[in-house]
Amino acid sequence: MWRTSTRTGNGDQWGPCRSLDRTGKTPFETMICHCWAENSLFAVLSLGIEAGVWAHLSSDEQPRTVVAIADATGMEEAMLARLLKHVAAMGAGNTGGLGRCVLALPSYLRKTNYTSPTSMTDGNLQYDHDIKFNCSSGYTPMSAAWPSTSTWAAYSHGRPKWTDAGFYPVQERLLDDFDASCPDAAFLVDIGGNLGHNLQSFLDRFPTAPGRLVLQDLEHVISAIPPDSESSLSPRIERTVYDFHTPQPVKGARAYYMHSILHNWPDEVCCAILRNVKAAMCPGYSRLLINENVIPNTGAQWEATALDVLMLALLSSKKRTRVKCVRLLEEKAGLKVNEIDTFANGVESLIELVVPE
Ligand SMILES: C[S@@+](CC[C@H](N)C(=O)[O-])C[C@H]1O[C@@H](n2cnc3c(N)ncnc32)[C@H](O)[C@@H]1O
């Protein structure tokens, strides 16, 4: 069954504004906005990160003159004034940090004759940095700008969560039939759960949920979690080191959860990861919850399509459409899709899977 959440709080509120904006522009204005204004803005925003302009401005709420910002950052005043004028004219307050890699895409795809990349060791990111490396090693040349251990909690900030009322019926589908007869019964295992923010938000919403809550990630991530005394992570959440390319050690949990994991990997690797989960699931009882952007076949939301292009540029991977998700999960990985709960045209979706009986 495919259900669409009725919640609308964080959907594409900009859609009507963008349509209005386009209506008010001539085709020429639309073209120069994309080609001149947005590209220039992106360059200035990236430069502002490097030069410490935004860090300085966000250090408190005080307004600053250009002279003061130039003083604090060491930038030439005339240059700073010129660049900030464009930021102000565009009304922007956002940051970019992935610019270099995304902007390399046209040249990379020209080289590959505009075909979909399949190699994780030789895609756009590697082309852009002129080296070969495997993203699955966890290291990328842009790790300073991208996968720091704290980035993922920030990504989730303010976004719809699968545990929000009206998204996925946690009580009926997971809690009601939880089998607590075994003392070490696991309730929820978050695979590749980073610093545990998803498990913590689950616990905040369902503080009396029974059973074990197990966080799994690589050693360098788990070791970055502060000790209980300094952490906002509940001591109930078990922090464990686990590589999802190896057999899943927690057997027969009520639910295994993966958020923003499969979009990083090509289908064959996803299948291998899914095989490890499937082998640990108890047929008829365990559920696998895949929390991803599932792009609808029509009417896709800009946020999901933008992320799809980013995945292409960074990891040679993709955000999958519904059709491609189901093909991967059912035909290739041999699981059964019970339902897909979707919010805001696929910007967040939860796919519930079981082992076919
Ligand atoms: C895109 S982040 C998603 C993090 C988290 N699930 C979330 O939604 O915020 C991918 C996560 O997978 C973890 N990861 C990457 N390779 C892994 C592996 N082989 N085994 C376990 N975790 C891995 C990373 O450390 C990172 O925390």
Q: Look at the helices and sheets and give the structural class.
A: alpha/beta
Q: Which architecture name of the largest domain does CATH use?
A: 3-Layer(aba) Sandwich
Mean pLDDT score, rounded?
A: 85
Give the CATH H-level superfamily of the largest domain.
Answer: Vaccinia Virus protein VP39
Our count of domains comes out at 3
The CATH topology assignment of the largest domain is: Rossmann fold
Record the strand order, biggest sheet. 1-7-8-6-5-2-3-4
How far apart lie the N and C ends? 18 Å
From the spread of the alpha carbons, the general shape counts as: globular
Beta-strand level of the residues, as a percent range?
Answer: 5-15%
Q: Taking Cα atoms only, what radius of gyration do you get, to the nearest Å?
A: 22 Å
Given the structure, what is the number of helices?
15
DSSP helix fraction: 40-55%
Which cofactors or ions or other ligands sit in this model?
Answer: S-adenosylmethionine
Tell me the number of strands.
Answer: 8
Low-confidence stretches: 4-10, 139-148
> Which class of the largest domain in CATH terms?
Alpha Beta
Quaternary status: single chain
Instruction: List the secondary-structure elements in sequence, H or E.
Output: EHHHHHHHHHHEHEHEEHEHHEE
Biggest sheet character: 8 strands, mixed
Keywords: Methyltransferase, S-adenosyl-L-methionine, Transferase
InterPro entries: COMT-like (IPR016461), COMT_C (IPR001077), SAM-dependent_MTases_sf (IPR029063), WH-like_DNA-bd_sf (IPR036388), WH_DNA-bd_sf (IPR036390)
Organism: Parathielavia appendiculata
Protein name: S-adenosyl-L-methionine-dependent methyltransferase
